[in-house]
Amino acid sequence: xxxxxxxxxxxxxxxTDPDGRPTLADYVPVPRVYPAGRLDAxxxxxxxxxDDGALQARLADPRHHVEKVYWVQVERVPGEDxxxxxxxxVVLKDGPTRPARVRAIEEPPGLWTRExxxxxxxxxxxxxxxxxLTEGRNRQVRRMTAAVGFxxxxxxxxxxxxxxxxxxxxxxxxxx
Length: 176
Prior knowledge:
The chain is an alpha+beta fold. The protein has a single domain, classed as Pseudouridine synthase (2-Layer Sandwich). The protein is built from three helices and eleven strands; from the N terminus they run E-E-E-H-E-H-E-E-E-E-H-E-E-E. The chain has helices at 53-60, 80-88, 140-147, and strands at 2-7, 34-35, 44-50, 68-75, 91-92, 95-96, 101-105, 126-133, 152-160, 163-164, 173-175. The strands form two sheets. Strands 1, 2, 3, 4, 7, 8, 9, 10 and 11 form a nine-stranded mixed sheet that branches. It has a two-stranded antiparallel sheet with strand order 5-6. The longest helix is centred in the middle third of the chain and has 9 residues, at 80-88. The radius of gyration is 16 Å and the shape is globular. It starts with a strand and ends with a strand. 27% of the residues are buried. The model has no long low-confidence stretch (mean pLDDT 95).
């Protein structure tokens, strides 16, 4: 079984939390499925859950080079030099990243409002990027954009390999 979930902002990628924070159990009432990869609580978007250990490993393990695609809203507007640095490789504390697919995009149409909303600052413009990675280090997209001078304000995963978020709204899921 494979489930595609649009994980809302603030939800933990686990089924229980001793502190009572929102978890996957609040959205997916299906027993014995586990996330294939993770999204931080402050990230949104596509999370795949499965009961198939081999599929979980194939999707989550960076050795398989499965591309994960993110829309990221960054502070300020990056120029071509910053985009080129993101594409080539960014040196992080845990080593250089693999080359990434990066392009500037318009704000995605039909994007839902995030709760709580991103803090708007009139004097600081924002921009949207689409970033495709074939590895998945902890908070990697956020660390990459910050390393080139453009902190991430909002991060939404829209695809993992052949699986895409499509029209799922936050908290909605479907079988894949």
